[in-house]
Amino acid sequence: MSENEYYSTLSQQSVAEFKDRGSRFLAYAYPIQSAAGFKDKLALLKKEHPKAVHHCFAYRLGLDGTDFRVSDDGEPSGTAGRPILGQIDSKGLTNVLVVVVRYFGGTLLGVPGLINAYKTATAMSLQLVPVVTKPVTVKLLVTFDYTQMNEVMRWVKAFNCEIIEQEMQLFCSMKIETPKKRLDELTQMLLHIRGVEVKKC
User: Fold this and answer.
1) 52 and 66: one domain?
2) Is the domain of 24 the same as that of 106?
3) Residue 1 has pLDDT above 70, yes or no
4) 126 with 191, same domain?
5) pLDDT per position as a tens digit, 151-189
6) Among residues 45, 120, 169, 201, which one has the fewest Cβ atoms lying within 10 Å of its Cβ?
C-alpha cells in the first residue's frame, strides 16, 4: 500500500469538552474536503457560540504538507492554532479541521496552560471517532463521440469511478474521479477507444 495512494481522515465529526480553572474549551473536529468547507463550519460555530471569547482553529488538507492554516484568534501567539495542528499531525490525519471554542472562566491560564488546554481538547475530539483510510483520487475530463458512450461507460463502471458531471450531446464530456492507483490503467483503456480524449482536470 503506497503512502501516496491512501490518506487517513476522520469518519465523521465530533465534539469534546475540556475544562481548566473555569475556562471551557469545546473542540469540534470535522472531516473537510476544501478550504471553502472550513469557512462554512467556522461561521456556523461563531453563530452557535456568540458569547465565546475565542474561536481558534487549525486544518490540514491534501497530501503534500503545504495546505494548512492555523489561527490563535486573539490568544497569545502560538498557544492555540499550532497545538491544535500538532494533534492533527500526530495522528497522521489530513482533510481535517478542528475548531476550539473557548469560554473564559475569569482566571488567566498563562502560555503553558493555554497550550495544554488547546492540545488536550483537540486530542480528546480526535479520539472520539474512528479514523478511515481513503484512496487518493484524481479528477479526469473524458471527451468522446456519442457513439462511444457504451464503451466509455463500461470502463468508468469497471474502475468504480465517480461521475462528477456530464454533458451528453452529439459530442460528450464527462468529469470523473478515479482512485489514483488505477489512473494509468484506466487512462490506457479509455485511450484505446478511437476518438476518446482524456486529460486531468
Assistant:
1) yes
2) yes
3) no
4) no
5) 999 999 999 999 999 999 889 999 999 999 999 999 999
6) 169
